[in-house]
Design brief:
- The structure is a homodimer.
- By secondary structure, the first copy, chain A, is α/β, with parallel strands linked by helices.
- The first copy, chain A, folds into 2 domains: 4-63 and 152-282, HAD superfamily/HAD-like (Rossmann fold, 3-Layer(aba) Sandwich); 66-150, DNA polymerase, domain 1, CATH 1.10.150.
- In chain A, 40% of the residues lie in helices and 7% in strands.
- Chain A is built from 12 helices and 5 strands.
- Chain A has helices at residues 8-12, 66-80, 87-96, 98-106, 115-129, 139-146, 158-166, 179-189, 199-202, 209-218, 233-241, 276-282; strands at residues 54-57, 170-173, 226-230, 245-249, 271-273.
- A 5-stranded parallel β-sheet of chain A has the order 2-1-3-4-5, sandwiched between helices.
- In chain A, helix 11 (233-241) links the parallel strand 3 and strand 4.
- In chain A, helix 2 (66-80) packs across helix 3 (87-96) and helix 3 (87-96) crosses helix 5.
- The first copy, chain A, is globular, with a radius of gyration of 20 Å.
- At the A-B interface, helix 1, helix 5, helix 6 and helix 8 of A face helix 1, helix 5, helix 6 and helix 8 of B.
C-alpha cells in the first residue's frame, strides 16, 4: 500500500464522480478513509475498472482453520463422554453437511434459518452417522459443542494481514456465518474487522447474488469497489458474476495435510496470493 | 472492569443457562469474550437482572459532536460560495429537520429511506430557510456537504472510553445513522466498534422498538444482556421499554455552550456518568 495520510479536509474538496446526486440514489461516491495511519490507496481492479474501497473475506477456510478448531472441540467432547472417534474425521463429516443444508435454504425448500441452526442440526446428523443415540446426550452439551463454530482459530497470518489491509481499506467478513458467530470469532481471535454483516443480515447464503449485493449496498459502494478474498474459486466466480473484484488466497491445509485443496488459482482473479499479507502487499 | 483473562477452553465447560436448545431458538446462551486483554465481566444491570454482554451507543451527540462537525463543514461551504451565514445556527437549523423527517418514516407516511437521504433533503430545506435559491448550487457540492454527517468528530473521551469498554464487552453503535455513515465515521475518527449495524439493517428509526430489537437479535443476545448508552433520556426510555439495560452519559455541550441539554439524569437509569470512560469504570 502506498502513500501518506489522506487529509479529510482536502478530500472534502475532491470532485465527486460523474453521477447524479449519489446520496439520493443511496450510493455515496466520495468515500474517504481516515485514522492516524490511513494510507492513500488507489488499487484499481482490472476486472471492474474501479478503485477498490472494501476488501471482504470469506471466513471458513480463508481466515480461520475450521478443521483444527472443530476437531479440537470434538476431541474434548469425545473424551468427556468416553467416546472413541477420530476428531478430524468427525470435523470433516460435520462440515460435509454444510453445503447440502444451505442448499435447502437457497432452493427455497425451507425458509431462511441462521447458520447456527444449520450447524446444530448438522451435528445431530454427524453423530447419527457414527451410530450414536442422540438421546444419550444432554441437548445443552450438544448446543455448547455446536458453538465451537463461533470460536475457530485464525490462520497464523490472518490477524496481521487484515490489520495491514485495514489501514487503507474497509475490511469485513463476507461469510455464510451469522452475525453473532462472526462477532464471537472476531472477539476471541482478535480479527480486526471494521464491521460485521452476517448472512442473517442479507438472509441469503453464498453463492446467491443477494449474499454479495446486500452487504455491498449497506457499505454504500458499487459492486466494483468491493473485493471478495476467498480460498474457494466457486465463491470468487459468484462474486465476479455480481460485479465484485476478486482475490484468491491459497489455503492448502484447509482440508488437512495431503487432502485436496485449490493451491493454485485456475481462474483469472484480480489478485492471487498464499496468505492475507501477500494480498496486502499487492493492494 | 474486574478480573483476569478468561480462558476459552475453561469457559467451554461452563454450564449453559436454564433454557432449551438456545441455538435452535436463535439465542445462544454461552457467550464468551476473548483476545489477549479480555476481562472477565460480570456487571448485572439492576433493571434487567441480567449480565450485560454488549454496550451499544447512541452516536449523534453521545459519541460525536455533530454541531461542531457540521458547523465546520457549513462554514467551509459558505466561504467557498461567498455566503454569509452563522455556521452554528446553520448546523442547528439542519439538525432541527432531523426528528420531523424521521417521524414521516416512523408514522408510515413514507417508506423507509436511509438517513443519508433524509440529511440530503433536510439540507435543501435548511438552505431554503435562509432564502437561498437551490438552483444556484451544483447538486454535487450539496451532496458533498451532506456527507459531512459521515465525518463528525468524536468527543475527546470517546475513543479511549470505547476502547476500555471493548476489552470486556461487545461495543457497537445503536444509531439512526445508516451503516455506511457509521462506517466512514468510525474509520475517520478511530472509533473501535466491534461491529456496525446501521438503521438501514433494521430499517427502523429510534424510538421504534424494532430499532433496538433487531440489533439485539443479530447479536444473539437477550434484550436484558444489551445496554444502550445515550445522552438523551427519550432514547433510554424507549430502550428500557424494549427490555434493554441503560446508561446515561451527560453531554452538556451537545447543543453548544449555554444551550439546554440534559446534564443530570432525571430517570432511574442503570448507570450514569459524565463521559464514556466514567461508564467504563462503572462496568
Amino acid at each position: 500500500m502506498r502513500g501518506a495520510g489522506m487529509d479529510i479536509a482536502l478530500s472534502l474538496q475532491q470532485p465527486i464522480a460523474d453521477r447524479d446526486s449519489p446520496i439520493l440514489t443511496g450510493v455515496p461516491v466520495v468515500r474517504r478513509l481516515g485514522g492516524c495511519d490511513a494510507g492513500e490507496v488507489a488499487y484499481v481492479a482490472p476486472s471492474t475498472g474501479r478503485t477498490v474501497r472494501a476488501v471482504l473475506f470469506d471466513v471458513f477456510g480463508t481466515v480461520v482453520d475450521w478443521r483444527t478448531g472443530i476437531a479440537e472441540a470434538a476431541g474434548a467432547f469425545a473424551s468427556s463422554h468416553g467416546l472413541e472417534l477420530d476428531p478430524y474425521a468427525f470435523a470433516d463429516s460435520w462440515r460435509a453437511q454444510y453445503q447440502p443444508a444451505m442448499r435447502r435454504v437457497r432452493s427455497g425448500e425451507r425458509s431462511f434459518v441462521s447458520l447456527d441452526v444449520l450447524h446444530r442440526e448438522n451435528l445431530d446428523d454427524a453423530l447419527r452417522e457414527l451410530g450414536l443415540d442422540l438421546g444419550g446426550f444432554d441437548p445443552k452439551e450438544l448446543d455448547a459443542l455446536a458453538l465451537a463454530w463461533h470460536f475457530l482459530p485464525p490462520w497464523p497470518d490472518s490477524v496481521a494481514g487484515l490489520s495491514a489491509i485495514k489501514r487503507g481499506y474497509i475490511v469485513g467478513p463476507l461469510s455464510n456465518g451469522n452475525t453473532s458467530l462472526l462477532l464471537d470469532m472476531a472477539k476471541a481471535g482478535g480479527l480486526p474487522w471494521d464491521l460485521i454483516l452476517g448472512s442473517d443480515v442479507s438472509r441469503a447464503y453464498k453463492p446467491d447474488p443477494e449474499a454479495y449485493l446486500r452487504p455491498t449496498a449497506l457499505l454504500g459502494l458499487n459492486p466494483g469497489e468491493v473485493m471478495l478474498a476467498a480460498a474457494h474459486e466457486g465463491d470468487l466466480a459468484a462474486a465476479r458474476k455480481t460485479g465484485l473484484a476478486t482475490a484468491f488466497i491459497a489455503r492448502p491445509l484447509e482440508y488437512g495435510p495431503g487432502a485436496a485443496a485449490t493451491v493454485a488459482a485456475t481462474g483469472d482473479w484480480d489478485l492471487a496470493g498464499g496468505s492475507i499479507p501477500e494480498i496486502a502487499d499487492l493492494l
